[in-house]
Amino acid sequence: MNTEKTYTLADLKVWDYPGTALAVIGKPIKHSLSPIMQNAALEQLSLNDNRFKEWAYFRFEIDPEDLSEALEFFYQKRFLGLNLTVPHKVMALGLLKTISNSAKAIGAVNTLKWTASGYEGFNTDGYGMSKGIEQGLGKGLNENHVLILGAGGAARAAVVECLSQKAASIRILNRSKDRLDAMLSSLSELKGYESIIPIEAKEDLADLPEMGICINATSLGLNQNDPLPLDMAFLTPQWAVYDMVYNPQKTQLFIEAKKLGCAAKTGLGMLVHQGAQALEIWTEQKIDAHIMHNASENILSNQAS
Fold first, then answer.
1. C-alpha distance from residue 202 to each of 7, 159, 172, 224, 244 (Å)
2. From CA 262, how far away is CA 260, in angstroms rounded?
3. Of 89, 97, 113, 258, which residue is the catalytic one?
4. Using CA atoms, how far apart are residues 214 and 221, in angstroms rounded to an integer?
5. Can you tell me the distance from the alpha carbon of 98 to that of 163, in angstroms, rounded to the nearest whole number?
6. What Å distances lie between residue 108 and 32, 90, 123, 132, 155, CA to CA?
7. I need a labelling partner for 186 at 20 to 30 A (CA). Which of 16, 50, 54, 267 fits?
8. Pairing mode, if any, of strands 98-99 and 145-149?
């Protein structure tokens, strides 16, 4: 079957792929790089293990109101693994019986695995982010000061991972105080919560430490005319900047950070490593993330040219 096509719920209801099927579901979903990078990794696995020759990864556009019905069909059709993206990550949480501790803490799932008793939910976003930062910026979250921009699902995953990695402090800046307060309230029971410092006024940024890691967990940067998520005047060149946005490969935040002299990276590494961990959950094999990275980077480069 065609792994480049975008399938629908109607296609799912008559699904008859004989091999082991995996898929990403969301709306919109046509832009997703997941089929490209996951199928590249599966092809590599099949070179050494014939079991994976019949594995394939697809994409499905599913309306939010159809998610519950769709998950039932995915389970009946024995899709071994699913990746969930916007807007399904939070919605799916209430549809699962078994959820990993990290997914519970984040309040969202992005990876499902078929089991005899139903789908089990995981969240690999935090792992993907930390690996993306580690490899892209050459530093880890542990004992570093972190400034997180945003208070949505991506920001929450970033905060939980920073707590897990024992960051020295975690500052959070968001345009909506109500949304920030709601996220902080939901995280208040987590170990290390006292290291979180909400930034309630722009002026508070003047008290930033001399160095740290700034993480953009907003969607600002997806469009060319988006404003910067942060006034760069508050950062010193000793700060590193990680933009979760991966397309375009050079966001305006990335460009301005480089001008300032900061180490900077955009979010392709996060996408790749969250996907690699998901594939490891499904296959129980060690995955070469470089294969996935190269396949994704080639597509992005072709789109930009």
1. 45, 20, 11, 24, 22
2. 6
3. 89
4. 15
5. 23
6. 19, 4, 7, 20, 12
7. 267
8. unpaired
Letter for the amino acid at 254? Answer: F
Strands 111-115 and 118-122: antiparallel
Question: Chain-centre distance of CA 75, in angstroms?
Answer: 23
Q: Catalytic site residue 77?
A: no
pLDDT tens per residue across all 305 residues of the chain: 899 999 999 999 999 999 999 999 999 999 899 999 999 999 999 999 999 999 999 999 999 999 999 999 999 999 999 999 988 999 999 999 999 998 999 999 999 999 999 999 999 999 999 999 999 999 999 999 999 999 988 999 999 999 999 999 999 999 888 999 999 999 999 999 999 999 988 888 989 999 999 999 999 898 888 999 999 999 999 999 999 999 999 999 999 999 999 999 999 999 999 999 999 999 999 999 999 999 999 999 888 66
Sole residue written with tokens 């939980």 = 160
pTM summary value = 0.94
CA distance 201 to 113: 42
- How many CA atoms, within 13 angstroms, populate the side-chain half-sphere of residue 67? 21
For residue 228, the 8-state DSSP code is P
